[in-house]
Amino acid sequence: MIVTKQKDLESIICLIQKDPVFIVGCSQCATLCKTGGEDEIKKMVSILKVKNINVTGWVLLDPACHLLNDKRILKSYKDKIKKAKKVLVLACGNGVQTVAEIIDNAEVIPGLDTLFLGEIKSVKEFEKRCNLCGECIQYLFDGLCPISRCPKNMLNGPCGGSKNGKCEVSKDLDCIWEIIINKLDKKKKLFLLKRIVEPKDWSKSLVMKR
Amino acid sequence: MNYTSNLEKVLKTKGFAVTAEIGPPKGCDAEKIKAKADFLINCADAFNITDNQTGVVRLSSIGGSVILLDMGLEPIMQMACRDRNRIALQSDVLGACAVGVRNILFVTGDHQCFGNHPNARGVFDLDSIQLIKVVKDMRDHGVFQSGDEIKFGRPNVFIGGAANPFADPLSFRVDRLEKKIFAGVDFIQTQSVFNLERFNCWMDEVRSRGLDKKVFILAGVTPLKSLKMCERMKFHVPGVDIPNVIYNRMKNTSDPKKEGFDISLELIKEIKKIKGVSGVHITALFWENIIPSLVSKAGLL
Fold first, then answer.
1. What was the ipTM of the complex prediction?
2. Architecture of B6-225+267-297 per CATH?
3. Rounded to two decimals, what is the model's pTM?
4. Is any Cβ of chain A less than 8 angstroms from the Cβ of B57?
């Protein structure tokens, strides 16, 4: 899932500049991580109303990254969007651009910051799991990914900075290499890590279309 | 008056400078640079040492610059944003300055996919405009990009940048130059000029905004060595604009080297007449030994 976080309210209000605004949410990732679902949209509407900002309407796209779907849905909100000078998108960076591709009268502004592609650990806890690097090499690490989970992207073992299983960069972050090693050790397969992993082909991460 | 570099002195006192490009070798043989430099010793006021241009690994620009300094020549060290983050870029500016480099030219850099390591990860932590501003702040305000203070020596460098009057979108080309000036660039070397009409349009706009008074502009000149080179540049190098008139001259001649040389001479003659142009920057790709006769015949010596 694409994990997002709401921008702080002050900067959202600063971007809206008192202009009439139409709000767009997303039924999928942003709903799951509670940043752009129906509840969050309604909450945003009432917050903006208190700030004397005119909300001309809102819609939950299904999902926001679906261009043709969005075109169809937004058509029926044409009048409400026409009254707005800003469209606040509570969806990931993709959602913002898909909406901006369709709307031409108002300025499209992002209400969320897009953080990572990650796992839902519990209702309100998410962890990064993928960098979208274009070539999955997790077969080398028993289904674990040091590209997305090691801040140094180490491919040949731990850097030596971790302590008690925690990364030197942040005590909140488990050292992925400690996890990989423990997992393979239990399976008596630690020897798999002896092979030198060659430099990664980063050109694979540059693919722009499929 | 104290000048940061010889290049700055020439630009400020003579009003017209000549720079030439020396591409470092694919290896650590210093003699390769020395041989090229020996040939060009009296032909230019300063010499660009390129930084892994087109993403091909070569002897580093800082190493190449030191070789020139040892020969008593003045380098314009090039630095690209492709391969280093802001920590390494700032560190290398300090290092270069410490060994005597006084001109540094900052570019974003060709994408690594064009070079001999297309699988490399591009860094692009900063772009050229951001880097120019960072170095200007280091030099003039004694602070790193983070705001941290420079305690033991601000880098006193003459700051260079590149401009392409021919690239798309044309409507933004002068705006981009203006941004570089605002960021703090002291001199500009342009993409090689073949399309004089287009270059003149760009310079008209530059002058109308008074930008020629705020920055020294050196027009790029590249002698065409062969039809093959002309075709490669016309059809395959992004941002190069070779008009059909020049292409046809290269196509129809029986002596491409002479024709390419003559075209360059004519271009330099015309460029010298353009108000607001402060010099020429000669990039003779794999044809550095033509530079002495070119500058001599063009009356640039």
1. 0.91
2. Alpha-Beta Barrel (3.20)
3. 0.94
4. no
